[in-house]
């Protein structure tokens, strides 16, 4: 629903879906476009698990971005739920931006093109305006390695515009933004101009803690982690926020890894999360974290629903 406020003639507002393979840099791009952190980023694939929104308000435009879980073809109940959430973003979008990892494309072109061709059909069928964000060009050497790949992409996505960018270094973003804006409908803003995300702080807190633990653990452990905020209390006198979080893991052995020797892994993750939250909220934060084993939760539909993943 557009907001009922006065705006200049010709104001545009709409929804932009950021889609792409795992680890392509979708969340990094979202944060770069919005100008602050609204989505968590790690070096591991399959970090994002839900549709995350970020809002960019400018003088004449408002862009509402959906960041989505990476598109891939691996099984499992949780993975299926993640894929569904990514493809859902397509139906509500005015423009679709397919984010691709050019460093991967340059080093393993055949594997890259196979992955990308699988995405072409549903994207072209959706009939939405499609832009290709060719990400991570900062680490492609030599630069002319990009040219043959760009030709193959232009063949695979007839009609799509190509934008070489570096989300990490915020390079090449203005032309990409202009490309998105071209396809937005004339509309008043959809959200108040000072709002950067639709996600509540509670969700942000759980995501930040998951990001720190995702980074600190290896192999299957990060994928068996989920964070639930059980309590959020704001002291009306002091303004201090007390948060109680539960980290769910799928096995007893994972619990030991997440806690770490003398509790060090968990303590460090909680401390980093607390500091980042205090910066975001401008308040004192007290954070208490528990780790619980929920056997095989990623295959448990009730648990997936409780965590907002089903
Ligand atoms: N060199 C370089 N690295 C980048 C760039 N953009 C993202 N990265 C890195 O790529 C990794 C994955 O970034 P994310 O933003 O989490 O990727 P994603 O597409 O959201 O991944 P999923 O949520 O797992 O699907 C991180 O280590 C980022 O720092 C870029 O432009 N250049
Ligand atoms: Mg992501």
UniProtKB/TrEMBL annotation:
Residues 217-295 form the KH type-2 domain. It is a peripheral membrane protein. GO terms for biological process: ribosomal small subunit assembly. Residues 67-70 are annotated as: G3. Keywords: Cell membrane, Cytoplasm, GTP-binding, Membrane, Nucleotide-binding, Ribosome biogenesis, RNA-binding, rRNA-binding. Residues 135-138 are annotated as: G4. Residues 20-27 are annotated as: G1. The keyword Metal-binding does not apply. Residues 12-186 form the Era-type G domain. GTP binds at residues 20-27, 67-71, 135-138. Residues 165-167 are annotated as: G5. It is found in: Cytoplasm; Cell membrane. One of its GO terms (cellular component) is plasma membrane. Gene3D superfamilies: 3.30.300.20, P-loop containing nucleotide triphosphate hydrolases. One of its GO terms (molecular function) is small ribosomal subunit rRNA binding. Residues 46-50 are annotated as: G2. An essential GTPase that binds both GDP and GTP, with rapid nucleotide exchange. Plays a role in 16S rRNA processing and 30S ribosomal subunit biogenesis and possibly also in cell cycle regulation and energy metabolism. Belongs to the TRAFAC class TrmE-Era-EngA-EngB-Septin-like GTPase superfamily. Era GTPase family. Monomer. This is GTPase Era. It comes from Oceanidesulfovibrio marinus.
């Amino acid at each position: 629903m557009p907001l009922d406020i006065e705006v200049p003639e010709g104001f545009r507002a709409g929804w932009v879906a950021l889609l792409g393979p795992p680890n392509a840099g979708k969340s990094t791009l979202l944060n770069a476009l919005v100008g602050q952190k609204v989505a968590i980023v790690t070096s591991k694939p399959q970090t994002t698990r839900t549709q995350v929104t970020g809002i960019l308000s400018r003088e004449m435009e408002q862009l509402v971005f959906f960041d989505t879980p990476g598109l891939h073809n691996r099984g499992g109940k949780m993975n299926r739920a993640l894929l569904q959430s990514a493809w859902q973003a397509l139906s509500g979008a005015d423009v679709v931006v397919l984010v691709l990892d050019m460093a991967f494309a340059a080093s393993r072109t055949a594997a890259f093109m196979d992955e990308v061709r699988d995405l072409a059909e549903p994207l072209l069928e959706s009939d939405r305006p499609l832009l290709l964000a060719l990400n991570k060009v900062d680490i492609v050497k030599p630069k002319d390695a990009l040219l043959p790949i760009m030709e193959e992409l232009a063949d695979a996505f007839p009609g799509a515009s190509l934008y070489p960018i570096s989300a990490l270094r915020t390079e090449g973003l203005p032309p990409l933004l202009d490309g998105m804006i071209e396809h937005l409908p004339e509309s008043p803003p959809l959200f108040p101009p000072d709002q950067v995300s639709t996600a509540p702080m509670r969700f942000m807190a759980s995501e930040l803690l998951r990001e720190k633990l995702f980074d600190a653990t290896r192999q299957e452990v990060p994928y068996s982690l989920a964070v639930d905020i059980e309590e959020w209390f704001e002291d009306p006198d002091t303004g201090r926020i007390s948060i109680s979080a539960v980290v769910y893991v799928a096995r007893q052995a994972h619990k030991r890894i997440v806690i770490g020797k003398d509790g060090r892994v968990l303590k460090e993750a909680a401390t980093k999360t607390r500091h980042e939250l205090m910066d975001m909220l401008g308040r004192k934060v007290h954070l208490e974290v528990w780790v619980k084993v929920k056997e095989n939760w990623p295959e448990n539909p009730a648990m997936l629903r409780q965590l907002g993943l089903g």
